[in-house]
Write a structure and sequence with these properties.
Length: about 70
């Protein structure tokens, strides 16, 4: 919220510009910043067939390439 109000500068990974575009935020590339790794995580007690199926699809698709 503070970023959209112009109160702060926040470093976002490049994926944000593709998957969460915001008309109230200007994204400027930081060219010497390395990619930030992401991983799926969930509470083991919440695991179910739907979560396992989703994790399987993500595993099959592999890393996102730009």
């Amino acid at each position: 919220m503070l970023t959209s109000l112009g109160e702060t500068v926040t470093l976002f990974p490049i994926q944000v510009t593709r998957y969460w575009p915001r008309p109230d935020i200007v994204y400027l590339p930081v060219r010497d910043m390395t990619a930030l790794p992401y991983a799926l995580v969930w509470r083991s007690e919440a695991e179910n067939d739907l979560i396992r199926a989703f994790a399987g699809v993500v595993r099959e698709l592999g890393p996102l390439t730009s």
